[in-house]
Specification:
- The protein is of the alpha/beta class.
- Helix content is 35%, strand content 16%.
- The protein has six helices and nine strands, in the order E-H-E-E-H-E-H-E-H-E-E-H-E-H-E.
- The protein has helices at residues 16-27, 55-63, 89-110, 138-160, 180-184, 203-214; strands at 7-11, 32-36, 48-49, 69-74, 119-123, 166-172, 175-176, 201-202, 224-227.
- It has a seven-stranded parallel sheet, sandwiched between helices.
- Helix 1 links the parallel strand 1 and strand 2 (32-36).
- The protein is globular.
- The two termini are 33 Å apart.
C-alpha cells in the first residue's frame, strides 16, 4: 500500500465503487472519509452527508475535516433509462444536475483546497468515450461526455495555475455489484435488459485500478483510462 500523508475523500461512498473503495482504504488503515447524500455506506460506515449538487454543503463538509486532503476520488454519478418517446424530464434533470452541475461544484471546491491535494481522480463511464448503442441512453451518455470534457479542462487549468494536483480519469465499462440496472431502469421496469449476461468487471477490480492510479510516481499521471472486460464489445 502507498504511503499516505493526508486524508482521502471518497465522494459517492454510500454504495457501489465508492463504498467499496472507502472500505478498502479503511480496512488497510489509510486515513479516509466518505461523503454521500446518505449517512451510511453499504458496509455500515458512517459518512459525511454532503450532496454534490449543493456547493455550500461541500464547502462546509470539507471545512469540517481535520488535517490536509491528499486525494479526492469522485465516484458520484447517476444514470437512468429515458427514451425520447417518454416523459423523461425527471430523469434528464437529475442526470444533468448530478453528472454535470454536481461535478462542476466538486471541481470548484477541489480547486480551492489549500494546500493543493496531490490527486483528483474522477470515476466516469465508458459512455463518455463513444455514443451509447443502448436505446434510452442518450442523455446519460451526453452528461458523461460533458463530465469528461470538464475534467480535461480542470486538468489544463491546474497545470496553467501551477497547482500540484494530478488530475486523472477512470472510465470503467459495465461493473457487477453496483445495482446499475435496478437504478437505470427505474422509470420503466419493462425495458430492463439482462445486462449482466455479457462480460463485466468485478467491483474489486475497479478499486484495484483506482489504488494503482493513486500510487503512480508523482511525476506521472494516468490522465484518461478506459477499463473494461477484454470480451466486452462496444
Amino acid at each position: 500500500m502507498r504511503e499516505q500523508h493526508g486524508l482521502t475523500i471518497v465522494l459517492g461512498a454510500s454504495s457501489g465503487v465508492g463504498a467499496a473503495l472507502l472500505e478498502r482504504l479503511l480496512v488497510e488503515g489509510a486515513p479516509a472519509v466518505g461523503f454521500s447524500r446518505r449517512a451510511e455506506s453499504s458496509f455500515g460506515r458512517s459518512l459525511v452527508v454532503a450532496d454534490v449538487t449543493d456547493r455550500a454543503a461541500l464547502v462546509g463538509a470539507v471545512g469540517g475535516l481535520d488535517g490536509p486532503v491528499e486525494s479526492v476520488v469522485n465516484c458520484v454519478g447517476v444514470g437512468f433509462y429515458a427514451p425520447w418517446d417518454s416523459d423523461g424530464s425527471p430523469e434528464w434533470s437529475e442526470m444533468a444536475a448530478t453528472n454535470v452541475a454536481g461535478l462542476a461544484n466538486v471541481l470548484s471546491v477541489v480547486g480551492t483546497l489549500a494546500p493543493d491535494p496531490e490527486n483528483y481522480l474522477h470515476v466516469g463511464s465508458l459512455a463518455a468515450h463513444r455514443p451509447s448503442s443502448s436505446p434510452g441512453n442518450a442523455v446519460y451518455s451526453a452528461t458523461k461526455l460533458a463530465g469528461r470534457a470538464m475534467v480535461n479542462d480542470f486538468r489544463n487549468w491546474s497545470v496553467s495555475a501551477a497547482r500540484a494536483t494530478r488530475v486523472a480519469m477512470l472510465s470503467p465499462a459495465l461493473i457487477n455489484g453496483t445495482d446499475f440496472d435496478v437504478n437505470f431502469f427505474r422509470a420503466d421496469e419493462t425495458a430492463r435488459t439482462p445486462l449482466y449476461e455479457r462480460p463485466y468487471l468485478a467491483i474489486e477490480e475497479v478499486v484495484d485500478v483506482i489504488l494503482r492510479m493513486l500510487a503512480m510516481p508523482r511525476h506521472l499521471e494516468i490522465s484518461d483510462l478506459v477499463l473494461r472486460h477484454r470480451l466486452q464489445e462496444d
